[in-house]
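sorry for the late reply, my laptop died twice this morning and i had to redo everyting from scratch. anyway the thing you sent over, i finally got around to it. pasting the sequence first so we're on the same page, its 341 residues, then the predicted structure underneath. double check i copied it right bc i was rushing
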Amino acid sequence: MLKTCPELAVKLEAIKVLKSQLNQELSNLPPSGKLEDLVMLEKIKEKLGSELKDLQNEAWFGLPEFSEEYFENQYDIQRDILIENGLLKFLSTGEFGIHAIDGLEYPMPTLEQVKEGLLKNRELLKTKIKQGFVELVMVPFGLPAALLDKVYREKVVKINEKKELLATDKQRIELKDEFFTDHDTRYLEGDSEGFLFYHPQNFFEGNNPDKAKPELLATQAWQALLFKNSSEFPYTGQVVFGRKEFEIGKNPIEYLKQLQTDPQYQGEQGLTPESWLTYALSNLEQKNQIVDNYYGYHLLDCYFVIQNQLYTPGYYQAQLYWNHPATNNPNFSVRTAVKVI
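ok and here's the structure:
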């Protein structure tokens, strides 16, 4: 049973009343078989059915671009993508899930669990949905980041061999050698080796209580995130329902402060290699389209510590990028997502 706010509970109760009313009306109709009685029956069913659908939609989010049916389909797509790419396995419990870097099994959150996460923060998420965060991505955070990277790269190559690979502008592109140039997968092993840390409050060395992945798995082996439905980031400062898109050229320290303090970004978080790669794989599977091929993204929800130096990662094309957090890059911005669970 989904947990609901009082307002939502009232609406759900109204739905029950409508169902009872429909049943009562049907039981009062004489079984005459006359045409006028059948017409009346159809009108009653149509009227009450329409009201029932409207109430159900309002009790969900009341937004046509984010119907309950749409969301359920998004969940099914995510599950199928993870199965198709060998990331989702049958566990010993008979559930679908992952074998994480700590050697334990973690089942994929059920549809009902994800819905419950949505409705817990219904009013905030309703605003974020209006701002364009409508694409569900189920992130198997507990898997090795290097594995997600390998699966994504192999899928890019496979689609390119079929000559079906599309750029962010939806034009056919031919994969070039530089697409993977300077891609150093050693840093993706930081989640397993203990030098990649998550959920920073700042990027000042020695001033972060952040944790490595094994410490987070008990409560965060999976993430359900809402992304904006965009393969390339809108870096022009466009305003959508009171939210201004991030512009290019700032450094990670500035972006993180903006994300933490500006009310228009409430409920949003930066990305990790795991969430960026899962989003990129999802986009590739559904559209044959890569993401971020001309510009890059700082990943604000993690950092590396290498030889006692703190660095922030980013992604450009399919290359892992890293730099000092105070360094400005004129071709980089930040992509965010909204946490559901």
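Residues 35-60 form the longest helix (26 residues).
thats about all i looked at so far, will dig more tmrw
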